Amino acid sequence: MNARAGLRTVAVVGGGPVALVCAVALKQALPGANVAVVPAAVPDDALADRFPLALPAVHDVLARIGMPAELLLARGVARPRLASRFDDWSRDGARWMVGDDGAATLAEGRLPALWLRAQGGQERVPPFHALNPGCVAAAAGIGDPRVEPALHLDPVRLAQALASIARQGGVRFVDAVPDADLTIDASGRRTGNWEDWQGALPCERVGFAPAANDAPYDAYRATAQGWTAHWPGVAVTTGQGIAIAPGRQSAPFRGRTLATGDAAVQPGPLGRAGFTLALGQLALLLELMPTRDPEPLLQAEYNRRVALQADRMRDFLALHYHGGGRTQGPFWHRLRNLPRPPSLARLLAQFARRGHIVPADEELVHRDAWVAVLLGQGMVPERPDPVALSVPPDRAARLINDLAARIAALDYSA
Amino acid sequence: MTDRRIAHVVIVGGGTAGWMTAAAAGRFLDDGQRRITLVESDAIGTVGVGEATIPSILNFNKLLGIDEAEFLRETKGSFKLGIEFAGWHRPGGSGYFHPFGSFGRDIEGVNFHQLWLKLRGEAGIGPIGDYSPSTVAARAAAFGPPVGDPRSPLSGMAYAYHIDATLYAAFLRKRAEADGVARVEGRIVAVDRADNGHVSAVRLDDGRVVAGDLFIDCSGFRSLLLGDTMGVGFEDWSHWLPCDRAIAVPTERTEPVLPYTRATAHVAGWQWRIPLQHRTGNGVVYSSRFLGDDAAEKLLLSRLDAAPTAAPRRLSFTAGQRCAMWAGNVIAIGLSGGFLEPLESTSIHLIQQGISKLFALFPDRDFSNVERDEYNRQMADNYRSIRDFIILHYHATARDDSPFWSHVRTMDVPDSLTRKLDLFRQKGRVFRYEDELFAMPSWVAVLLGQGVDPVGYDPVADALDEERLGGALRQMRSATAAAVAGLPPHGAVLARLG
Fold first, then answer.
1. Which residues neighbour A274 within 8 Å (Cβ) at sequence distance 6 or greater?
2. For residue B360, what pLDDT is reported?
3. DSSP codes of every residue in B260-276
4. Which residues of B does the annotation mark as catalytic?
5. Residue among A3, A288, A360 minimizing CB distance to B456
6. A21-45 b/e with 16+ CB inside 10 Å = b?
7. What is the distance between the alpha carbons of residues B151 and B187, in angstroms, rounded to a whole number?
8. Mutate to test the interface with B, among A65, A279, A354, A391 (most CBs of B within 10 A)
9. Who contacts B380 (Cβ-Cβ below 8 Å, separation ≥6)?
10. Chain B residues closer than 8 Å to A390 by CB
11. A398-414: burial string, b at 16+ Cβ within 10 Å, e else
């Protein structure tokens, strides 16, 4: 007999993919438990439910519940997002891209270091994103089977598929919240104590309008007042529309209630990271599966790791605002005086010195993406990489140009 | 723009830390202009730290392009699959094995040890060590490298080495000198400092002066530059780790040469046994508060399994670390920066960490705080997490047979360790922290071995079909035994090195 008796009853409150994916995963992990979904209207600012996107780091959570990426792509529930493109968002205005999968590698040293080294050579060097196969394929509007894309998920089809799996698996749909050993608040509604992220992620309003766009990348453009974006099927404009308050709940798991998705973390619209965070939280929940009776120690550990995960994502997204790119326009002027969380300040200081990204636990973003966001905006580390110094600039330039040419010809080893 | 690059790196001290640093610097810091000098005195002995290592040394060797067979021939080394701990939970009681590599395979996302905790009482399940290929191979004194195929039980193996540290330093010296590192022989009698407090030069007993931009202090316990010159204080951890003395003695080789280190607890500390090709390294670690030096030496000599080949050597130390590893233009690597007893063979690993982090954060002559602070933060984290893991071995015990064990069993431990102990005891859960050296299998091996018994296990394990789960575990266990049975004896693998 296990002294840690499993959950008998779980209630999941919410009407979007976040609630359904939690219900399905918990029912599969605990087949003996009674799992009920209590549908609720999805609030306007529940972006994780409205614009779900899954970064490669959380694909295994979807695979675990029987929705591997290949299947979602084949069934038309998901479309590949290979990269994000940014215009008017750098010091010199040059366009840059961030791939959702990693950049290529060279045996001669760290790619960013060699690329920086190559700037001192005679040959012209392509932009950093030309070294990322996902960015190159995205710009050409083609797919590349060697690149693992992020999944742009159709919220309606995803919810339908999840609801069908849920029903088949024995999840019940009920009208009122039953008494349960654990209640999961996936309603997208904000409750409890929140930490405010306005300094790191300045965005107060965002508007969405239907638009035709089916490129395999998200396209962002900085404006004097903020930014605009084209995601598949939708045009995004900041500074107008619904109110958004980026931040996170300080302790999402308390007693018998656990908040997840936008009810736990609101990362704002840039990068549409909400659904990825929800899946990251679900992976932690499955790893630290609670028992019938609340265990404060386990809850503290869950809250600690969710906070690390959320803060790390906040810092990644904040690089887009605080990475020293665009400086023109009132919105960007104001950024200079906004408070930065210490971890973000340390990240920026370390990168500005030598081009290194301070590593952290609970990482959901590809390492190469961090570098791409900073190099793309025009941040040049003060100090050259000591290993790259042994490669003369002309040789580095040749290596970089050769690599870019091979990637453009789709002739590289993944 | 003037060139602010460090033009001359001076390494002070030529033991394990000094020559590891020099060999790595010769390979990675040479930009065609930079000079690297190592100052050492033939008159000053080295501690010869770290005869046993952990798997991270394979990364260091790989980076330096060191061939394994040559390395083992030159250092008269042997393979190491883990550490056997005897008498740590109960005096004289059967011990446990802390293996390198992993235990079993996770099933449906549930950690293997949770599955084992659920089924451990049942027929045919056996001890958790039966699922660790390194443990099973160590018991049979067999050895083989891990295999790449994840379906093979041998994919869960990992290994390190036992080496003769003096030979290791000589081996690295050859490589460093071939890479252009200059060696200066002489005793340092004075240290010159610039107006800003930085070290500008060291003066030798014959009047020579070695000036430099960056000084790496590998002077051992003495901490000549960081401690004496820069005046960086020492954070004393002896209230948690009271052992402060060691006596080392080599003995003749015994057969078979075991592919693991042995750490046997005694009345006021513990004794190590490290098998090499040409001899066995032995030593006793103890707390002088609880055991006299002569009594400790007697204890050591009475517990040897072969004849001594040299006189015992005495060492004294204090567990702890310098409040900063990097001050001004001085960076301490090795014992000059801190000391943790060799219970988990971490000394060489900490040297490697010091080197790799220094290269990653390599400064210029302006010596910005950005690099210094980050280096100090990362190194302090490294020392602290290893410290907690070592304290665990002492604190989580049922021993009450001596004042020493009563002290360590009942002492206050760091909060970071208390949280880990509580979580494991109550849930069988293992905490994960950033960048931690000892991963889940290590914590599981030592926690269970020390008698920290979880009251329950992951409820997700209850959702898995019990019969199939039992079948899967029994199959894993027999597959591990069968795969290890095909491995050659460790002695034969060493003999083939030539």
1. A46, A47, A48, A49, A51, A52, A261, A262, A265, A266, A267
2. 84
3. SEEEEEETTEEEEEEE-
4. 80
5. A3
6. bbbbbbbbbbeebbbbbbbbebbeb
7. 56
8. A354
9. B321, B325
10. 30-32
11. bbbbebbeebbeeebee
Closest Cβ opposite residue B429 in set A64, A288, A359 = A288
Token pair, residue B90, equals 């109960």
Chain A closest-CA separation from residue B434 CA (Å)? 5
Q: pLDDT tens across B27-74, in order? A: 888 777 889 999 999 887 776 655 899 999 999 999 899 999 999 999
Which residues does chain A have within 8 Å of residue B371's beta carbon, measured at their own beta carbons? 353-354
Tens digits of residue pLDDT in B78-87: 999 999 999 9
Contact between chains at B458 and A289 (C-beta distance less than 8 A): yes
- Label residue A177 left, alpha or beta by phi (over 0 means left) and psi (-120 to 50 means alpha): beta
User: What residues have CB less than 8 Å from B410, skipping those under 6 apart?
Assistant: none
B361, B423, B459: residue with CB nearest A291 = B459
Whether A30 sits inside 8 A of B432 (CB atoms) is no
Helix H or strand E segment including A408:
helix A393-408
Tens place of pLDDT per residue across chain A (414 aa): 687 889 999 999 999 999 999 999 999 999 999 999 999 999 999 999 999 999 999 999 999 999 999 999 999 999 999 999 999 999 888 999 999 999 998 888 889 999 999 998 888 999 999 999 999 999 988 888 889 999 999 999 999 999 999 999 999 999 999 999 999 999 999 988 999 999 999 989 999 999 988 889 999 999 999 999 999 999 999 999 999 999 999 999 999 999 999 999 999 999 999 999 999 999 999 989 999 998 888 999 999 999 999 999 999 999 999 998 888 899 999 998 898 999 999 999 999 988 888 888 889 999 899 999 999 999 999 887 777 777 899 999 999 999 999 998 877 665
Two tokens, residue B358: 């220094």
Report the alpha-carbon distance of residue B118 to residue A1 in Å, rounded.
9
| Angle (CA) A270 A276 A277, round 5° | 90
Contact B432 A361 (CB under 8 A): yes
- Pick the closest to residue B442 from B457, B418, B424 (CA basis): B424
Q: Which residues of A touch B434 (CB under 8 A)?
A: 359-361
Extract the tokens encoding B204: 């030798």
Chain A CB contacts of B456 under 8 Å are 2-4, 291
Q: Cβ contact (<8 Å) for B434 and A361?
A: yes
Q: Of A62, B12, B269, give the one whose Cα is nearest residue B283.
A: B269
Task: Retrieve residue B345's tokens.
Answer: 């063979």
Q: Bridge-partner residues for B92, per DSSP?
A: none
Distance in angstroms (rounded) separating the CA atoms of residues B450 and B477:
23
Report the DSSP pairing between strands A234-238 and A226-231: antiparallel
**A and B: number of Cβ contacts within 8 A:** 84
| B111 alpha-carbon distance from chain centroid | 26
